[in-house]
């Protein structure tokens, strides 16, 4: 089950905790992986760890020219992009009443607009081959909201709406578009939280613990697999029961 | 009929699965030949590849009929 042999996958944010684990998991299932991210060093370290069937494709997602070029570079390197995982994300938290235009726009640009551009860039090839998988990494806060994250939750909710609209358009061509919405996962992003913040968060999680990146990667692997061909436009919530949607 | 028209017609017939006789000068891809909007996007992609040209999105929107396609491609290539 869930064999991706012969498939090619482009993963953004592969230098981060969740993205790196997604890359490892898709690679272990047999896929050739294109590792994208802003920081080259962790990408190269991951490529060295994974060995063959690996390509490093650095890209700064706040630079839209670079974003437009990324699908072309990925196709040059791997021959195609059968699976796109829009995982990259940034946060610039602030109270809504204090949030600057720049804090708002930069998060929308990287988390939502770059994802849209990458979808557009890979669709042509997917339409021709009548097979494609797009998995957009949203967040539980896209559904529930979170104080201080008006920008981030707007972008993450936006990814869900975008995924559904696109899923409608391309379903007849064998392409599925889904979202995965992680809850609180142990990564560098959540390590910045204080112990008090962590314990108050865990009080809201019925599972009583943070999730692991591998638990997100498993959801992505399923949605990327041939077995999930009939699943499209959905959001798979992986949050320990924190929000039962 | 010109070479361009023949090649365009072949793509339209293959992609939309319609009878060759139905692909006339004024035949609309959507209204007469049963294409949906995504089919028209795919037709434009196929034209781009067949003729080695780039058809920008705003131009693609003006290509509604077989005749439009032949005219645009003849001028562009």
Describe this structure in words.
The complex is a heterodimer of chains A (245) and B (77). Chain A is of the alpha/beta class and 245 residues long. Chain A is built from 9 helices and 7 strands. Chain A has helices at residues 17-28, 40-50, 64-78, 101-129, 140-144, 150-170, 188-191, 195-202, 213-224, and strands at 8-11, 32-37, 54-58, 83-86, 132-137, 175-182, 235-238. In chain A, strands 3-2-1-4-5-6-7 form a 7-stranded parallel β-sheet, with helices on both faces. In chain A, α1 crosses α9 and α3 packs parallel to α4 (101-129). The mean pLDDT of chain A is 96. Chain B is mostly helical and 77 residues long. Chain B has helices spanning 3-16, 37-51, 57-60, 66-76. The two termini of chain B are 17 Å apart. The chains are: A alpha/beta (245), B mainly alpha (77).
Quick overview:
By secondary structure, chain A is of the alpha/beta class. In chain A, 48% of the residues lie in helices and 15% in strands.
Give the strand line-up of the largest sheet of chain A: 3-2-1-4-5-6-7
Helix and strand run of chain A? EHEHEHEHEHHEHHHE
Number of strands of chain B: 0
Biggest interface and which pair forms it?
Answer: A-B, 7 and 4 residues
Question: Which tags fit this structure?
Answer:
heterodimer; A: 245 residues; alpha/beta; 7-stranded parallel β-sheet; 7 strands; 48% helix; globular; B: 77 residues; mainly alpha; 4 helices
How is this fold's topology laid out?
The complex is a heterodimer of chains A (245) and B (77).
Chain A: E1 8-11, H1 17-28, E2 32-37, H2 40-50, E3 54-58, H3 64-78, E4 83-86, H4 101-129, E5 132-137, H5 140-144, H6 150-170, E6 175-182, H7 188-191, H8 195-202, H9 213-224, E7 235-238
Parallel strand pairs in A: 1-2, 1-4, 2-3, 4-5, 5-6, 6-7
Helix pairs in contact in A: 1-9, 3-4, 4-6
Chain B: H1 3-16, H2 37-51, H3 57-60, H4 66-76
Helix pairs in contact in B: 1-2, 1-4
């Amino acid at each position: 089950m869930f064999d991706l042999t012969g498939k090619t996958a482009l993963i953004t944010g592969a230098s981060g905790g969740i993205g790196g684990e997604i890359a490892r998991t898709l690679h272990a299932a047999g896929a050739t992986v294109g590792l994208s991210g802003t920081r080259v060093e962790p990408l190269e370290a991951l490529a060295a760890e994974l060995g063959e069937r690996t390509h490093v494709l650095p890209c700064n997602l706040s630079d839209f020219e670079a974003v437009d070029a990324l699908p072309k570079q990925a196709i040059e390197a791997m021959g195609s992009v059968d699976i796109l995982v829009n995982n990259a994300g940034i946060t610039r938290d602030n109270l809504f009443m204090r949030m600057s235009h720049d804090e708002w726009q930069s998060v929308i640009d990287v988390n939502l607009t770059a994802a849209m551009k990458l979808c557009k860039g890979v669709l042509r090839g997917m339409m021709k081959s009548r097979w494609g998988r797009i998995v957009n990494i949203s967040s539980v806060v896209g559904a529930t909201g979170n104080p201080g994250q008006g920008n981030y939750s707007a972008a993450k909710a936006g990814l869900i709406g975008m995924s559904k609209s696109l899923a409608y358009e391309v379903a007849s061509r064998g392409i599925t578009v889904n979202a995965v919405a992680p809850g609180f996962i142990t990564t560098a992003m959540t390590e910045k939280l204080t112990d008090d913040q962590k314990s108050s968060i865990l009080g809201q999680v019925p599972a009583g613990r943070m999730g692991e990146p591998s638990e997100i990667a498993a959801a992505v692997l399923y949605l990327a697999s041939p077995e999930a061909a009939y699943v499209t436009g959905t959001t798979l919530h992986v949050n320990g029961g924190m929000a039962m949607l | 009929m010109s070479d361009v028209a023949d090649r365009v017609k072949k793509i339209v017939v293959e992609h939309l699965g319609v009878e060759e006789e139905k692909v006339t000068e004024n035949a609309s891809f959507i209204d007469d030949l049963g294409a949906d909007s995504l089919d028209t996007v795919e037709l434009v992609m196929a034209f781009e590849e067949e003729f080695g040209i780039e058809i920008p999105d705003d131009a693609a929107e003006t290509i509604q009929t077989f005749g439009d396609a032949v005219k645009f491609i003849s001028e562009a290539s």
